[in-house]
Amino acid sequence: MFFEEGEDTGTLRLNVTTFGSPKAITAESAREFLATAVGLPVETLQNGNALAKRITKTTDRGQKITMYSWHLSASLPPETIRLANFTYTVLASETQSSTTMKDLSFIEASIRQATFSNEHGVTSHPIKLTKH
What we know:
There is one protein chain. The chain is of the alpha+beta class. It has one domain. The chain is 19% helix and 39% strand. It is built from 2 helices and 6 strands. Strands 1-2-6-5-4-3 form a 6-stranded antiparallel sheet. A hairpin with a 7-residue loop joins strand 1 (2-3) and strand 2.
């Protein structure tokens, strides 16, 4: 979980899961897996990763919040797929603030450029985000 100090700041969460498959994984497997897993339209990125995203408006402990979610998957042949779920949560009243808009732009650009470790079993630093 990543956040800046303050009451009006967003919170970024990241969860990475590695899945094994009994059948051979191909470059297209990341897209197929993600479409099935999240049930959303999926975009294949230039780097071969697959990306799906959604916006959810809800209430948490009496506060109206907006959750921006990005689901990123990568094929790691011969038998592995990695799935990274990013969620950025802000107060609903902050969705149009300049800080939130800058944060969202940075987060999405970074996710689109993210790379996963090719080493099976490596869990530390599986995704590299680049700051612009």
